[in-house]
Each structure stands twice: as structure tokens, then as C-alpha cells.
């Protein structure tokens, strides 16, 4: 078996082993398994069958992971993109009033266009056009972005009078939520410190250990009555309500397309929005994760990036056919990379676990967000280390890098971070008389981004 895996994934050439890759795949899956619970809730608000969406999400994620391994042999896992699923449900269906079948059709068309762009090297050219300084900045910005997501998932950071605020334990005690939300926050903070210690001690599997220890401790506290589930507030029992469950039929969402409005301006606007966000979110994720794994060459290019982009595009198309929103490369893949994942075996392991989840959904859905939050915070710290690669003494390079880094967490968008970074990079180079140093593609991207924001 090991010889077969070696021949398929070239493990020794990439400085890894079967055990390391499988641990990395398990870690990646555990940090992104929340999508199996969240996506049916979000898309279910449109009238889609939540059970069918769960099945479609798991199947599409698994298939896309295998495609990533087959086309690129890279350790990136894929699933329904957060943000795009919310745009699908709350903007296209909720605000614009379109049926979910039309939104699903827009995702299908987006995927088909991306396949064409990937085969014609357009997406690869965009990846290579981004300067190396901005590539480092993207990695740092994603580090801050996923740290913010982790702190939000754990409710350490909550909405407040000044936009965001720290969780208040005294308020939780006063309003009676301490034994649900308060305990969850304490467990998340403990998990961050525990995982940090494991990282310092170079313990193999530190992120996965942190997840299971926090979840296990939460179960103990629930049994002791310290943690009290409050489903109405989103704090459910940490004990699985079963282990095995048969997958729900795909019939309610399978190939449910509506092509009646595909030639309308509104449909084009919706499809373009999906295209834009998915394109630059994916590029940002690939850049950030590849930078963390030292996979970029001296010119900032990622070998086999064309295959990775094609897998992403095919995943979106297949996902739309099955009945789920845009499939994209997941930033949580960086958790597996931190554990040493370097080849497609990591992606295959995560993909297999998505297939397994179809039959063990009660077990996987019991893992709480506050248990995986510490993993995101620690991975964010590790991705921040790329900040040393930015030439801070060269202001023409450093200022756009800072803009890119700052926008990602503050605007809550990888795509917008890349956009503002590229716009500022181009303007500063033109202002300094260095316009000949920029490629025509940088000018084209800058113009595209300006038009996009002017349009909005």
C-alpha cells in the first residue's frame, strides 16, 4: 500500500510520509467540518431541502478533493465557500427575490466559465501576475482573517456598540448565559493556550489534539452540569445524538436549474458577483496556503497551479449539479499544511472523511465551533510569520502590502484585500514614475477592480 501511495503522490520527493499526510488531512477536515452543519442552515433558508444540501455538500467536497489530488497533487481541501453561500441565500434569493433554482443556475454557469478560464491559462496568469510582495501580504492577511473567524466562532469577539467587542463574562452571569456561552468561551481560550503550548513543544498533531481535548473537556463539563446546552442560542449538546445515519436523498436539489432568466442583465450581475468573489478568494487562498508551505518558486509561482484551479472550477460545476453553492479551495487547508501536508494525499484523506461523514453525520455535527476555533487562531499566528518577507523599508512595496493585510480582516473579504492591494500597488508605482515595472495585466486588474467598486 505504501509503495502504491508513493507512486501516486511522490511522498519522498515532497519530504513527507503517509502518516503525516493522513494526519494533515484529518486535521484539515476537522477544522472545516463545520460547513456540513452551516451550509444546510444557510441554503435551507431559501427553501432548499436542508438534508439534500447536506448530502450535496459532503459529496461535492469529497469529489473536489479527489480532483485536487488528481489534477495537481496539492494538499488543498475544498467545500462550499462561506460568504458565497450567504450571498446565494440572503442576497440573490432573499433581497433580489430570485428562486433558489436560478441562483443555482448562476453557480453552474460560473463553474463552466471557470473551467474555460482554467483551461486557457487565464486564472493561472492572474495568479502569476500578483507581485511577490503582495503574495506575502495575502498570506499575512489571511492569517489575521482566519484568526478573526476563529475568535468569532468561539464568541471571544462579539458584536458591540463600537462594531466589535470582547465577550463579557459579568454580563453572561447576569443574563444567565454563562453556563452555555460563557463556558464555551472559556473552553476556547483554554484551547488556544493549550494548542500554543503544544506548538511550542513541537508535539506532532498539536492542532488535532487541541480540538479533541477541548471537545472532550466540554463533554465532561456537560455531564457535570457546568456546561448547559441552550439550543435557542446556538449552543447544542456536545454529546452525539447517534453515530450512524443514512444519507438523505439528493432528489430535491439534484439538477434543479432554471434557465428562464439567463439572458437578463440581473442574471449577469449575479453570475459576475459569484465569479469575482470566487476567483479572487481562491487565488488568495492558494497564495496564502502555498506561501505557508514554501511551495512558491523564486518568482512567486505555484507549480501545478493550473490543475488546482481546474479542480476548483470542476468542483463548483459538480456542486451546482448536486445542489449546493460555489465550491472553493478552503483557507482551513492551512491547518493541514501546518501539520506537514504537502501532497494530494492530504486532500484525498479530507475528501474521504467527507464521504464518511455522509454515514456518520451525528458524530461529525457534534463537534462544536469553539473546539475548532483555537486551531484557526494558531494557524493564523503561523501564517503571520510571512510578514518578515515584506520589505518594509521599501515604502512603494510595503504600503500596498499593509493595505492588503488590513482590508482582509476589517472588510471580512479575501477578495477585497487582494483588490485594494493591487489598486494601491499600481497607483503608487505610477505616482513614483515606475509604471514600466508593471505588467499590462496589473493595469487590467486595477481597472477591473475600480470599475467593480464604481458599479457597486
TrEMBL record:
InterPro entries according to UniProt: Azg-like (IPR045018), Azg-like_bact_archaea (IPR026033), NCS2 (IPR006043)
Recorded topology in the membrane: Multi-pass membrane protein
Subcellular location, record wording: Cell membrane
Keywords: Cell membrane, Membrane, Transmembrane, Transmembrane helix, Transport
Chief location category: membrane
Keyword Cell membrane attached: yes
Source superkingdom: Bacteria
Record bears the keyword Translocase: no
Record-annotated membrane-spanning stretches: 22-43, 50-78, 98-117, 137-158, 178-200, 207-228, 267-288, 308-331, 343-360, 395-415, 435-455
Any one Pfam family match given in the protein's UniProt record, by short name: Xan_ur_permease
Family note: Belongs to the nucleobase:cation symporter-2 (NCS2) (TC 2.A.40) family. Azg-like subfamily.
Protein name: NCS2 family permease
